[in-house]
UniProtKB/TrEMBL annotation:
Name by which UniProt lists this protein: Phosphoesterase
InterPro entries to which the protein is assigned, alphabetical: Calcineurin-like_PHP_lpxH, Metallo-depent_PP-like, Phosphodiesterase_MJ0936/Vps29
Ranges where the Calcineurin-like phosphoesterase domain occurs: 1-150
First and last residue of the signal peptide: none
Pfam families for the chain: Metallophos_2
Enzyme class: hydrolase
Amino acid sequence: MHLLLLADTHVPRRARDLPPVVWDAVDAADVVLHAGDWVDVALLDALEARARRVVGCWGNNDGADLRARLPEVARAELGGLRFAVVHETGQATGREARCAAAYPDADVLVFGHSHIPWDTVAPGGLRLLNPGSPTDRRRQPTGTFLTARAEGGALHDVVLHPVPPRA
């Protein structure tokens, strides 16, 4: 099962649309996981129309229309793994232990908010993944997103992809 992990897309505030490389990744994915800060419900509609499946949550920049359609924490079992998707996890210090305690029933936690890519494993085995932002790089060299494969109860081929600058 091929996964695309997104967060902090901020469309249309930070970009008019997702970059073409991200739409290509949507087309290749079996499931798109989005960890909030969509900003406009139109992007959710577009992803749901184009992706095979979308698992997403709302973020702190998402209004009532998105919060009415998305949970604060989204959950899905994919490829034999239990995923939780949430926007905020708090400060980096102590994140692994804090998230392991908050999500004891998850194997993988996808989160956003910081726009900073993150890939660690908490004591006990919880994998924490933040794909960064494909549209608002902030202090990062480029925008980013993650792809991975979930199969047989394991996560494989986790790759952080840089988003090329717009021409």
